[in-house]
């Protein structure tokens, strides 16, 4: 793979984000977007949620977290990300050593800042594959839960808070199991 391919491109990311936002914005304006997503998700995820709201939502969130984690693992250059994280850790340790020398700390911070755009480009690449489907899934979730009267999951959480909490839990576990950088 060439250097440009390893780094990724923010342009593609912006295009995918734009398409995602456009699809979400046009959800109610163009029935074919909404209807086609409902025709796929109502008999699958909808059936799980209708069977048992809490357990069904845990299963759906787990499947989505697994898909996102797999996209991160196989859609990024894991070796390069690991190397960059090691270098950043070394820089942090050096900054601790030179706490009393602000000029040296500033120099190390500048070096560390150079990693941010490179790391973002590498780690955001999976969004190209997951961005639009996730936005459409969120819009479907909203329709499903509004139609169900906005029930509370586990008796206390909205669907969005439930999704966030459980996706963070599942993603953390899956990233460790699958050794995602």
Provide a count of the helices.
10
Tell me, briefly, the overall form: elongated
* Range of helix content: over 70%
Mean model confidence by pLDDT: 87
Largest pleated sheet: none
Number of strands: 0
Number of domains: 1
* Main structural class: mainly alpha
Beta-strand percentage? under 5%
Description:
With 181 residues, the protein is mainly α. The protein has one domain (3-76, 125-177). It contains 10 helices and no strands. The protein is elongated. The two termini are 19 Å apart.
What keywords describe this structure?
disordered N terminus, 181 residues, 10 helices, mainly alpha, elongated
List the helices and strands and how they pair.
Blueprint lengths: L2 H5 L2 H16 L5 H11 L3 H7 L1 H23 L2 H20 L4 H12 L1 H10 L2 H21 L11 H19 L4
Helix pairs in contact: 2-9, 4-5, 5-9, 5-10, 6-7
Task: Provide a concise account of the structure shown.
80% of the residues lie in helices and 0% in strands. By secondary structure, the protein is an all-alpha fold. It has one domain.
């Amino acid at each position: 793979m060439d250097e440009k391919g390893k780094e990724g491109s923010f342009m593609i990311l912006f295009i995918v984000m734009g398409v995602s936002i456009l699809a979400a914005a046009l959800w109610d304006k163009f029935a074919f977007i909404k209807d086609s997503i409902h025709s796929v998700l109502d008999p699958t995820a909808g059936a799980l949620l209708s069977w048992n709201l809490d357990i069904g939502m845990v299963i759906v969130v787990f499947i989505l977290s697994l898909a996102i984690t797999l996209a991160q693992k196989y859609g990024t250059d894991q070796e390069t990300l690991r190397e960059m994280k090691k270098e950043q850790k070394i820089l942090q340790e050096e900054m601790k050593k030179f706490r009393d020398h602000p000029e040296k700390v500033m120099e190390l911070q500048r070096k560390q800042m150079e990693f941010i755009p490179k790391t973002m480009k590498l780690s955001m690449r999976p969004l190209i594959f997951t961005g639009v489907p996730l936005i459409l899934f969120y819009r479907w979730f909203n329709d499903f839960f509004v139609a169900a009267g906005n029930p509370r999951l586990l008796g206390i959480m909205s669907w969005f808070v439930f999704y966030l909490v459980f996706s963070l839990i599942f993603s953390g576990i899956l990233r460790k199991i699958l050794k995602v950088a």
